[in-house]
Design a protein that fits this description.
GO terms for molecular function: methyltransferase activity. This is Methyltransferase family protein. The termini are far apart. The protein has one domain: Vaccinia Virus protein VP39 (Rossmann fold, 3-Layer(aba) Sandwich), CATH 3.40.50.150. It contains 14 helices and 11 strands. The strands form 2 sheets. It has a 9-stranded mixed sheet with strand order 2-1-10-11-9-6-3-4-5. A two-stranded antiparallel sheet has the order 7-8. It is α/β, with parallel strands linked by helices and about 300 residues long.
């Protein structure tokens, strides 16, 4: 299985949007969580911000942030996704590249400290993970020096911070690797290859640790919230395709695993609702790094003068 076949779900027009489930946390859809955050920090949309969104996909969450953007940069590695989002947001600058390459190109183009809002929703685990492992015809392969991989991954996170303008925010959503849904996904993928650090939460840990490092050196303040909720599948078949099409990427080894097939069916049985539909238990980590002078910014008014 090659990298291109692994990404096929993202490359065929309309496939990802068709398979994507709605996610609700405390009764609020993930898009509305972003909209609520924007309202809290920027009041009504006023098209005044310089915004970049990495892993933008077809622009599902971009709909919430675009009204706040004076200048909007949208990046995704998928040509199909970029073509769709360029049609939807014709005034935006688009970049077709992996997130790490997109960050590097923006820094090279003198965009350091110029974005009021740097965002990535559900997607940051992938560029962080790619420092540690790669896909080849032999399957998932760990990269040679894991210590070097971690060093590069942490630098990547700090480069994201480096794009953020003074007073701006780096805002990210990551899946909760400890939720029952993701534990099943982790169990399946570890039959293909083990994850660095013993599980898929390692990407979040690296992100949080690097942002703590940035906070400790005075680059800003970190707020990290975990919310529980569900991924809502209207039918059993849509729940099954969520696992095998999106999570498992139709990987041949996983498709041919009869024990995994039984595990998925039992999981769906457990969370199928009496009135129909399947409420898959899910979780999201909402991570906000505010690029303000720290710790001075934390003092009450008047004490810092």
């Amino acid at each position: 299985m090659t990298n291109s076949s692994f990404r096929a779900v993202y490359e065929t027009a309309g496939t990802y949007d068709k398979l994507l489930l709605q996610h609700f946390y405390g009764g609020t859809e993930d898009i509305d969580l972003v909209a609520d955050w924007l309202t809290e920090h920027h009041a009504a949309p006023r098209a005044a911000l310089n915004v970049v969104e990495f892993g933008c996909g077809t622009g599902r969450i971009t709909d919430a942030i675009a009204p706040y953007a004076r200048n909007l940069v949208l990046a995704d590695y998928s040509e199909t996704m970029v073509a769709a989002v360029a049609q939807k947001f014709p005034d935006a600058q688009t970049i077709c590249a992996d997130t790490s390459d997109a960050v590097t190109s923006l820094l090279a183009a003198d965009r350091a400290a110029t974005f009021d809002l740097v965002t990535a929703f559900w997607s940051l685990s992938y560029p962080i993970g790619e420092f540690f492992e790669e896909l080849s015809s032999a399957g998932v392969q760990p990269r040679g020096d894991q210590a070097v991989a971690e060093e590069h991954a942490r630098k990547f996170v700090l480069d994201l911070v480096g794009l953020t303008a003074p007073g701006g925010h780096l805002l990210a959503m990551l899946f909760d690797a400890e939720s029952p849904e993701q534990q099943l996904v982790t169990q399946a993928w570890e039959t293909v290859a083990p994850f660095p650090g013993g599980g898929r939460a390692y990407t979040r840990h690296i992100l949080i640790d690097a942002l703590h490092e940035a906070e400790n050196r005075g680059d800003g303040t970190l707020t990290h919230t975990r919310l529980g909720g569900v991924a809502w599948a209207p039918t059993r078949e849509s729940a099954r395709e969520w696992f095998f099409g999106v999570h498992f990427k139709h990987h041949p080894q996983l498709l041919d695993d009869l024990e995994l097939e039984r595990d998925v069916e039992e999981f769906i049985d457990r969370y199928e609702m009496p009135e129909g539909g399947v409420a898959l238990p899910s979780g999201v980590h909402l991570i906000d790094f505010h690029a303000v002078a720290h710790p001075r910014a934390s003092l009450p008014d008047g004490l810092a003068s």
